[in-house]
Amino acid sequence: MHITLIGAGPRGLLILERLLSWQQNRFPKRQLTIVLTDPYPIGGRVWKIDQDPNLIMNTAASQITLFTDQTVTNVGPFLTGPDLSTWALTTASGYLDAHPEFNNRAILLRQAAALGPNNYASRALYGVYQHWFFNMLVARAGNNSITFKQQTVVSLAKNAANFTITTDQESWHTDQVVMALGNLKNSLTRDQKALDDYAHAHDLFYLAPGFPEEGDLSTIEPQAPVIIRGLGLSFFDLMSRLTEGRGGRFQKTADGLLAYHPSGREPHIFTGSRRGFPY
To answer: Domain named FAD-dependent urate hydroxylase HpyO/Asp monooxygenase CreE-like FAD/NAD(P)-binding: which ranges (predicted)?
Structure first.
């Protein structure tokens, strides 16, 4: 059977693991040919390994895992393994050493060594965990074939007997398709479009909601007034990029609190939300 998984982030990897467990438990002699496709490397867009290592997850490391246990009721045996914090302590160093192509490897090594169960890992480090998990599944695949194609799917057509997948590089037929698309880019709302139009008309900078890690903030000058609308997850990403990302640093004081030492390259940030508090 030929199966295509569209999306190679956490959901796509979890589906891959369950398919392999199902096959090995129920139909060990039946071969699966599985293709994962994603325009970004393993881990997908949100968990890119080469992103700013100051951007962190919103869940404690000990609560992050791609493995299964007795709480999983799907078909197939359990595949137990380390959560993110345990992996960082036991496995991350050797895996990072084996992959010199990761351009922020030195920072990730330091992050892994310091990560505790109740700490919040960087999104880049979780990307390495997913990279390791995928390679572990490939090594355990047995008689199955697993291929990753870093390509963008542009068309999916249902035929009489199967599906035709077309990417920006090639086409192939597949028996089954699973879409694990993750977070997608949205069109601007009417209010957002109005803000964008106003910014263009008055030579201002406007960054629409989306993936804050990818927004170009280089045109924001030091001490320039900046409004961040909303106090959710994107707020913290933007705050990090405009403070620590510009050379500022936090230092622990004698009473255990953190004091921020600016670099002088930060803008003047105004922020707020309808609820009025971070969430």
So the answer is: 5-183
Closest CA to 261 of 274, 276, 246: 246
| DSSP at 214 | G
Q: How far apart are CA 57 and CA 119, in angstroms?
A: 10
Distances (CA, A) of 77 to 18, 25, 209: 9, 7, 41
> Could you tell me the domains of the chain?
2-179 (3.50.50), 190-272 (no CATH)
- Three-state DSSP at 2 gives strand
Q: Is the dihedral of CA 57, 113, 130, 44 positive or negative?
A: positive
How far is 85 from 92, CA to CA, in rounded Å? 10
d(CA 173, CA 161): 10
Q: Across the 279 residues of the chain, what is the mean pLDDT of every consecutive 10-residue run? A: 98 96 89 98 96 94 95 83 98 97 95 98 98 98 96 97 97 98 89 95 93 91 95 92 95 95 97 86
Q: How crowded is the C-beta side of 105, counted as CA atoms within 13 Å?
A: 12
